[in-house]
Amino acid sequence: MPTTSTPRRQFETLADAAERTGLSTRTIRRRIAAGQLPAYRSGPRVLRVDPADVDRLMVLIPTA
């Protein structure tokens, strides 16, 4: 009988998200504080974000 496993969610640090997108960690933190980016806490000082959520912040600007 085949088993189906749910894929594990991947999370990244704020620094990794900032480096990957070319934003600053401060900008990532501002987006979290504004409610535009969900963040996940693992301990009192550890924040992680889902890369897919970070990617959704990046919006393509249409050209003429």
TrEMBL record:
Any GO molecular function: DNA binding
Protein name, as recorded: Excisionase family DNA binding protein
Coiled coil: none
Domain Helix-turn-helix as annotated: residue spans: 13-58
